[in-house]
Amino acid sequence: MSLSGTYNTTVKSPMGDQSGTLTVVDNGDGTFSGNMAGGMGSMDIEDGKVDGNTLSWKMNMTVPMPMTLDCEATIADGKLAGNVNAGAFGAMPVTGEKVA
User: Fold this and answer.
1) Which of 27, 42, 48, 100 could form a disulfide with 57 if both were Cys (CB 3.0 to 4.6 A apart)?
2) Distance between alpha carbon 4 and the CA centroid of its chain, in Å?
3) What digits encode the pLDDT tens for the residues 80-89?
């Protein structure tokens, strides 16, 4: 099952809910690429890994401050659920639904 697609996501951050669009391109070799676009700009997926129906990746945020986000999410029945780890700010839940 390919996890490729576009997911409308919400991250529960200390600054309130952050809506975005996560694009996943499953490379078929245990890796994936793509990006996350939202109100604070667009971030490319780095070090994207696929393990069954679980994705793990990093993103380099620049706004409101430079920080590397460590992310992991599981996808089942078109729904995404996981966490975005923002260093000193802790883990923030992320949820989403496949739209394309």
Assistant:
1) 48
2) 13
3) 999 999 988 8
What is the fold of 5-98?
A: Lipocalin (2.40.128)
Mean pLDDT of the chain, nearest integer? 94
CA pair distance 83, 71, nearest whole angstrom? 6
- Residue 30: both structure tokens together: 């245990």
Tokens found for residue 12 = 């529960």
Q: Are 48 and 34 in contact (CB under 8 A)?
A: yes
Residue 23 has pLDDT above 90, yes or no: yes
Structure letter (DSSP) for residue 89: G
Domain parsing of the chain, residue ranges: 5-98
